[in-house]
């Protein structure tokens, strides 16, 4: 009842702000909490929603207000690259992921509008560049995708034989929903865990000679999104640009929170079934079965809960593997207690296996 009352009060404030654009008033943002549920809110009201565990998409700068279902690909009926992937999996390192995450959470926060968020992105960019340099690959590059706010998104591209593109993504930002700009927000699980999950998969993928010499039929991209907590801002801008440019994004796998295992529960891979592509989700389950020891359990996370929704919105097939069922996910996020001691790195390793398998299988698929 308290949450309902707080949300009702917030809605009233948002509506009042929308119809009273006073000179000097705080900027208003157009957000979507569900199909057709569009509201004008201030930045503070965004974080009040986050504090109530409400998910939303900031559509202020998006061209189209609704989801597109014009998906562009079909997916293999079975995995086909087991020999290559199984040879790579032992190279994945929990130690690497722990070491990287230990440094990543030292920033006061990774809020997308703060200097800390900008600094953390610069640090992460350097880590990615170091991996590319160490690999010796000449078909790989990393670039910043800049936004109107401080924190850039980061895109690492492994060029293949075609423009057809497979995306593996995670968001890099964190937030203390009660004090976004200056509050402590280590964001170890949300989404430091996803950040290092895909970073380690990227590192190991580049040790494969076929990948690092451009022999994959498809191009593979790894994305680290800025501003997810503000309403999927980084991913929203990227996938809108990709649609405008006519990019052939054949599949997108999102990794948002991969490290928490609720005490007393069985480890699983949560497979989200809302705002995703059913065909790609079916294929993702095949990847999990082939390369992870964990069983899958279907779950839902709600409208606009993470960056896969940005791909779906623009008509690109997306899927998401999650640390648990949504009900059993970390209770520590969006504050000071999302610390590294809540992260189970053996669990994170399973998700890095999944990312590696997903990228390799679809990177070498010829029938998408």
From TrEMBL:
Entries under CDD domains matching the protein: M28_AAP
Disulfide bond recorded as keyword: yes
Top EC class of this enzyme: hydrolase
Swiss-Prot/TrEMBL cofactor(s): Zn(2+)
Ranges where the record places region Disordered: 171-194
Domain Peptidase M28, residue spans: 154-357
EC number: 3.4.-.-
SUPFAM superfamilies: Zn-dependent exopeptidases
GO BP field: proteolysis
Gene3D superfamilies documented for this protein: Zn peptidases
Chain intervals with Polar residues compositional bias: 173-182
InterPro entries reported for this sequence: M28_fam, Peptidase_M28
Signal peptide as annotated in the record: 1-16
Keywords: Aminopeptidase, Disulfide bond, Glycoprotein, Hydrolase, Metal-binding, Protease, Signal, Zinc, Zymogen
A GO molecular function held by the record: metal ion binding
Self-association state and partner proteins as the record states: Monomer.
Described purpose of this protein according to its UniProt entry: Extracellular aminopeptidase that allows assimilation of proteinaceous substrates.
Similarity remark: Belongs to the peptidase M28 family. M28E subfamily.
Protein's name in the database: Peptide hydrolase
Taxonomic lineage from the root: Eukaryota, Fungi, Dikarya, Ascomycota, Pezizomycotina
